[in-house]
C-alpha cells in the first residue's frame, strides 16, 4: 500500500497531580452568592401591565363595514321630510307619509371559521370578532361553525369547543354568511382550490350571500377564491372593500404564496420579521403581530405573518412556536445585530412587554438573549435580575437532581448558539450542566466553539465524584483511533486487536479531544469531551483529511499526527508492537519501530530499531563502523534539480552549462568526507600531510587509491556496496533543494565554509584564511545534514570529466571515457567563487593531490570501473 496512512504520537506530556490538590476545578467567582431556587416563579399578577393584542383592523373601522354586509334595511316611524316636501311641491296625492329608512343587523347571521394550521396566527382575531359580534347582535340568531378540512360540496363542520364533526347545515336563502379564513389562498394542494370552487358554486345556487373576511392581500387581481365569493382583505391598511372573482379565469389559490418568490419587498420583510424574533424563546401569534407592526405597512402584510408561522426555520404548534435549530437561532441572531439600532430597541421592548408575565425560565432567558444582542435596549435593573437568576439556576441544577429541571436545561442549552455560549460563562455553565446525563451514560459531547474544558469543567461532573487513576492504551484499529482502559500489566480489558500507539494515565475526570482537518477541510475540525470513566472511547475516524488529534486535560497533553510512508521506507504497517517501517540497509530488510514520547518529558518520539539506523531533524541516517571508527550516511531521496549554474550567476565558469537532471532512485551519502581515522582503519596507513588529527578529512589520495579503499571496505562489510557518488548525485546532495550559488545562501563567510577568506565571492566581506583543513562536521551542515560540501577538501566523483549536455538527463553517469576524473566542492585553499555548488574540477585518476579527498556513497548506483 504505497499511500497507506497511519498515525503516530508526536507529543506526550503528563503531570503528576499534587498530593493536596482539589479533585476538580474551583467554582467560578460569579457563583459565590448564588442560591437554590424553589419554583419557576411568575411575577405577581397585580404588578403586570401587559399590552393588549393588536387587531388586524381598528374596531372603529370594522364595525360599520360589518353592519353593512351583515345587516338589512328597516322601516322607521320618523317622516322623511325632504321627500315629503318634494312630493307636495309636485302636487302628488299622498297615500302614505314617506318614512326615513333604517339599517340593522340581519335577524340571522351565519359564521364559518377556517381554523386550519395555515391561519393559526389569526385564530385569536377570529375568536375576538365572533365574540364581539355575538355581544352586539346577541347570540340568538348567530349560527357559528368551525370548518373541518376543505369545504367542497359537502363541508364538514364542528361547533366551537366541540370535537364531533357533522355535515354543515346550509343557511336559508338570503342569510348573510361571513367566512373567516384564507379561502385556500395559502394551500398549494389543487384539491383545496377545487373544494373552495365547489363551495362557492353551491352557495350561489342556494342564494346565500357569502363574504370572505381574509387576513391576506387580495392583490394581484384574480388571486381570490374561485366561484362567486366576495373577498375582503382584513388588515391594518385595507379599505374593507369586497373584491369578487368570477367562476372562470380565476387564478389558482396557490399563486398567492408563490407570488412571494418574485416580490423582493415581501421577501425582505419575511426575513426581517424572522430576525426580529431571534431573541425569543417562545413565539406566540400576539408577539408575531406586535413585531410585524414595527415594519412598513406596504411590505409586511398578513401574508408575511402567515408565512413566518409556516417557515421551515420555526417549529410551531397550536398555540406557540420556537426556532427549529441552534443553527437557525445563530443565523438570525447575527442578522439581529446588524439591524438598525432603533429597530433592535423597539423589538426588544415589544418582546419584554409581551412576555412580562411568563415564568422566569422563559422571561429571564429572553432578557439574557436580548442583553447579548442589544445590551443598550435592556434596562440595567432587569439585566441584573436575569444575571442573578442565571447563577441561581446553575447552583440549583448543581445541587438538586430534578427531572424537570434537567429537561429544561437540555432544551435551554439546545437553543444557544456557540457565540452566545462563548460570550457568557454562566450560560456555558448551563450548557455543561445539561451534558452531565450524557457524560454519565458514556457519551462524548461536542464542545461549543470558543468554550474549553477549563471554562466549564466545574459543572461537567459532580463535585463529589472521585478523581480517577486509569492506565490506558491509545490504539489504532483500521482507520479508527481508540482509547481503552488497561490493567496493571498493560493489557486492554475486553479483548485486544489493533496496534498500540501509546500508554498513558488519566488522573482527571474528563478528556478533551480536538480533531484538526487539513487546510482545505477546516470545517471538519471538532472538539469533543468525554468522562474518563467511560472507556473505551472511539476518538476519531482517521480519514485522509485529518491532520492532528490531541488529547488534553489538566494533567495531560498528547498529540497524534498522520504519517504517510516515508520516501526512504520500503513498507509501513502496524502490528501488535505498534507502528513500524521497513527499509533495506546493507542488503538486508530492517525494521524501525515508532517509539512515542514518554509522558514525563517534552520529547516528540523517534524511530528506532536494533540496526544502526535512525531519524533526526535532517531525516533518515545509517551508520557503519570499522575498527571502532564510525561513519554516518544520510538517505538522499530521488528527485529533479537544475544542474550547473544560471548564466546570471556571478563569477561562473563556462563548463557549468545549466540543464535539468532527474535522479530516479534514492541513495545514501556520507554526511562528512572520509576521515584519516576511517582510511587508516581500512588500509592501515595514512597518506595525509597532517597525521596527528584523525578527524581531519583524508587527503592526497588518488582516484585509483579510493577504488582500492572501496574494495577493501566492501570486503570487510558484506552488503555495503560502497562507491563514489556520480557528479550529478554529488551536486544534487550539495544543493539540498536550493538554487543559490551555495546551499547556505547567496554568499558565504569563513565561519560557514573553510576557504581562502582573502578572496571572498562576488564582493563579499573578507575573512580568515585557515591554510589547512578543519575536522569534519565542525562547520554548519546544509539543509540535508551534509557537512563541508563547500570547501575544506575537494571530493572525487565517479565520473569521467566531459561537457554537459543541454537537454534533460535521467541518472547521468558522465562521459563514457576520458583522461581525467571529476572532483567537486573546492578546498581550504580555493577562492570563494571556486567552492560554489556548480564548480567543476578534474585531475588524472592516478595523481595524488593536496587537499583532495572523497565522500562515500551507497545505494542503487553502480560503482564506476577503475581507469
Keywords:
25% helix; disordered C terminus; six-stranded antiparallel β-sheet; elongated; 867 residues; eight-stranded mixed β-sheet; alpha+beta
Give the helices and strands, then pairings.
Blueprint: E1 5-14, H1 59-70, E2 71-79, H2 81-90, E3 99-105, E4 109-113, H3 123-137, E5 142-147, E6 156-158, E7 166-167, E8 177-180, H4 190-205, E9 210-214, E10 230-233, E11 243-244, H5 254-258, H6 264-276, H7 285-292, H8 302-309, E12 314-316, E13 321-323, H9 326-337, H10 341-354, H11 360-373, H12 380-399, H13 403-414, H14 418-423, H15 425-434, H16 436-440, E14 445-446, H17 453-460, E15 470-477, E16 480-485, E17 499-506, E18 510-517, E19 526-531, E20 537-541, E21 546-553, E22 556-564, E23 571-575, E24 578-585, E25 588-595, E26 606-608, E27 613-616, E28 619-626, E29 629-636, E30 639-643, E31 659-663, E32 667-670, H18 676-683, H19 703-716, E33 722-723, H20 727-735, E34 794-800, E35 809-810, E36 821-824, E37 840-843, E38 852-854, E39 857-858
Parallel strand pairs: 4-5, 4-8, 8-9, 9-10, 31-35, 34-38
Antiparallel strand pairs: 1-22, 2-3, 5-6, 6-7, 10-11, 12-13, 14-19, 15-16, 15-17, 16-20, 18-19, 18-21, 21-22, 23-24, 24-25, 25-26, 27-28, 28-29, 29-32, 30-31, 32-39, 33-39, 34-36, 36-37
